Amino acid sequence: MEMEKGKVVVEKVRGKSTVIRSFSKYPLKFITPRKVGSSITDAVWIYSLTYGGGIVSGDSISVEFTIGDGCTAVLTTQSSTKVYKSLGSKCSEQVLEARIGSGALFVVIPDPVTCFSTARYSQKQVFRVVSDSSLVIVDWFTSGRHESGEKWDFELYRSSNCIFAEGNQPVFLDTVLLEQSSPVDIAERMHEYQVIAMVLIYGPKLKHVQDQVQENVKRLMSQQLQIPSTRLGCCAKTNSDNCLVRPAFIASCSAFGPKGMGVVVRVASTTTEAVYRFLHHQLAGMEPLLGVSPYS
């Protein structure tokens, strides 16, 4: 049976981006503050909440966003999305579909997903753009409550992000899948890393942010990946994985889409705090468009 969808519509009202329709179904709730940041900035902020502080087995959440021509909308959360244990083979699901109009900007900047022990979680986000739409997506998840021993202890995590242009032309297709049933368990594959993140920046309104992020990531990793010569010599002699120095924070950056209109950054970190700092620094250039710097 098709799940009932929530709907959010943003249109221009008296020259300002405004939520003209907002409907959500349990366990999801949307809050739209009257004012976030500078009043001279045309951006509407939408906070997504889940009743009870999280998602449980069998929850199915589906929502559609329509961002009208020339509008700016930000979708965020007030805390991490917690996914609790599964019962049997039930999987918690979230589906987000969005249409971004001409000259519009849609920014999806949630806190991370955190899957607790035995949880099964799947999310899919589909964005439909036109030639001059702009889009930012932050999609990230953490290892769980590793202080309590729940380090990569969930059963399944799947996250798909798809961008389609006019004529259903694929621009970006990406899926992250972690499942415990593979020969090597998730914790062993992830080594000491506690957070995995993807940052996608697309469209003409964000060219200055893309250029700055690419330069920042290039400079950051040139510093991070400098291995001392003595340690390098040790690894060359023994060919032992124990000699390798894994940086606490790794980031890579690449362009995608027609004429390189998009940039995608992938991050792995040993701490959540380091990713928050990274996101705040890299997306700070968006403050004039949003009224507030993301993750501030």
TrEMBL record:
<comment type="similarity">
    <text>Belongs to the UreD family.</text>
</comment>
<dbReference type="InterPro" id="IPR002669">
    <property type="entry name" value="UreD"/>
</dbReference>
<protein>
    <recommendedName>
        <fullName>Urease accessory protein D</fullName>
    </recommendedName>
</protein>
<dbReference type="Pfam" id="PF01774">
    <property type="entry name" value="UreD"/>
</dbReference>
<dbReference type="GO" id="GO:0016151">
    <property type="term" value="F:nickel cation binding"/>
</dbReference>
<keyword id="KW-0143">Chaperone</keyword>
